Amino acid sequence: QTKQPIHYVLHRLEGEQQTPGSALQPGMTLEQLGISNGDELWLRAPELETPRTAYLESASGERFNIVYRNATLGRGRAHGVGDIDLTRLDINATVSRQHAQILQREEGYYVRDLKSINGVVVDGVALPSGGRIKLEGGETIELGDVKLVFHLPE
Predict the structure, then answer these.
(1) What is the pTM (predicted TM-score) of this model?
(2) What is the CB neighbour count within 10 angstroms for residue 46?
(3) Which pLDDT score, from 0 to 100, does residue 24 have?
């Protein structure tokens, strides 16, 4: 069986804005794409095989897989294994660095507020600071101004 090459797309970050990406083909250099030393980039690889896992989905369709038992949702650079960085969705900086957690337990999934400044709202109901609620799938979770829909594994 022959392996197909994976084609990556590089996106240039300019402040908070992302400029359209270019496909990086085998043998190409970053210089050929107009990228120079000091440019800040992020890399998007195509989905290969998506494991059957719970996930959060933004209004723009961006998917955040929940692959760890305790996944921290927040903004800024990754805080540790399993964290989901919502910085790109948080235009008004309303998400705390460690805002909430999605917890996977034997009996199901939960969302827990990590005593965030702007709180966690699930389907229009505000959680108490530090509180948690069980997720059944399809709930809208609001972290500050960021809205995400929780999906159970498919």
Answers:
(1) 0.65
(2) 8
(3) 60
